[in-house]
Specification:
30% helix, 60s Ribosomal Protein L30, Chain: A, five-stranded mixed sheet, alpha+beta, two-stranded antiparallel ribbon
């Protein structure tokens, strides 16, 4: 099944890519790679209230994973906007995840799985990727997570 068909089957709305919040572009293509800037868990250009605050204080594992999944959906929307179709992605190379974590919260990899699992659901085997997950003290708009990506593309 193609990535576009998988995304449709999952009910993902990838038609609206969020506008940048500052002085950067949402995606840059260099040769056979597409780099997608960090995406927040936005819905309709606004931070989803369920995805706000510190993981480990304001929200916990399942809600943190849902925030990472929503941010990853926004990554895919940016990739689709840049490429015209998810089907031009040959491989998910790397995800970077930033978790707005409370001091002492150590389940960062579990939170990031919300994004990683989505990539495998959409792309199958080519969705498996290298990954970095970092706990941070703050994120833009007090978002719980931010996800960035690198794809190999046609």
């Amino acid at each position: 099944m193609s990535a576009s068909a998988s995304a449709a089957r999952l009910g993902l709305n990838l038609t609206v890519a969020a506008a940048p919040l500052a002085n950067y572009v949402p995606a840059v293509r260099v040769g056979g790679l597409l780099f997608v800037s960090g995406q927040l868990p936005l819905r309709g250009g606004v931070l989803d209230p369920a995805c706000k605050g510190k993981v480990g204080v304001d929200l916990f594992n399942e809600a943190g994973q849902a925030a990472a999944r929503l941010a990853a959906i926004n990554v895919l929307a940016q990739a689709r906007a840049a490429l015209g179709s998810l089907d031009k992605i040959k491989r998910v190379v790397r995800l970077g995840g930033f978790v707005n974590a409370a001091p002492g919260f150590h389940a960062l990899p579990a939170i990031m799985n919300g994004a990683s699992d989505l990539m495998v659901e959409v792309f199958g085997d080519i969705g498996h990727h290298a990954r970095t997950t970092v706990g941070v003290s703050e994120l833009p708009l007090d978002a719980a997570v931010e996800i960035e990506a690198m794809f190999e593309v046609e």
